[in-house]
Amino acid sequence: MAILSDAVDILKTRIPVPFSEIPLDSVVVGVFFTSVKLISGYEGICFTPVALIPDAVCCSTATSTMPNCGKIQGVMVEDMLTHLSILRHPWSGLSSSVW
Asked: What positions does the domain DUF4213 occupy (predicted)?
């Protein structure tokens, strides 16, 4: 997942406020999409084309590994980024989100 670490490092040098000072307003994790809204009002969304996942199912089998599931509002972006390494699949919606 070096590409995600590299992306985070680049973002750290380009944003005016450190990740440790940016709280999340909401995160919505769907079966094949994830959206993130920051307190500032900025939003982002990503999705996974289902056809690219040969073993795709209707329900996520990784829900139990999601950090802070149901308790994400107010968590700092920096804290959520520390969880990127626990993701099992590179196509997971959380790992594909653009912060």
From this structure: 22-84
- Asked whether the predicted pLDDT for residue 64 surpasses 70, the reply is no
Which tokens sit at 7?
């992306």
**pTM of the model as a whole:** 0.50
Three-point CA angle 57, 33, 16, nearest 5°: 150
The per-residue DSSP string of the chain comes to -HHHHHHHHHHHHH-SS-GGG-BEEEEEE-SSEEEEEETTS-EEEEE--GGG-TT--SS-S-GGGSTTTT--TT-BHHHHHTTGGG-S-TT-HHHH---
| CA–CA distance, 29 with 39 (Å, rounded to integer) | 18
The model's pLDDT over 11-39, given as tens digits with 9 standing for 90+, comes to 899 989 898 999 999 988 887 788 999 99
pLDDT at res. 25 = 92
Q: Which residues pair with 34 in a beta bridge?
A: 29, 46
